[in-house]
Amino acid sequence: MTTRFAPRLIALASAAFFTVVMLSGIDSLAAGDGASAYIAQSAAAAARA
Fold first, then answer.
1. Half-sphere exposure of 16 (CA within 13 A, CB side)
2. Which domain of life is it from (predicted)?
3. How far is the C-alpha of 15 from the C-alpha of 17, rounded, in Å?
4. pLDDT in tens, the chain (49 residues)
5. How many helices and strands, by DSSP H and E, does the chain display?
6. Is the pTM of this model over 0.85?
């Protein structure tokens, strides 16, 4: 895999994981340690890269 596509792949994977967490209702549990916020932030940062 070329490094050119890595940021988009990471963003896609992070967004997909975040969506699954939200839909499954674990977001309230993950929000306790800021995991959901971190995932959303990292996905946004990777999308800008």
1. 6
2. Bacteria
3. 5
4. 566 778 888 888 888 888 877 777 665 655 555 666 777 777 777 777 6
5. 3, 0
6. no
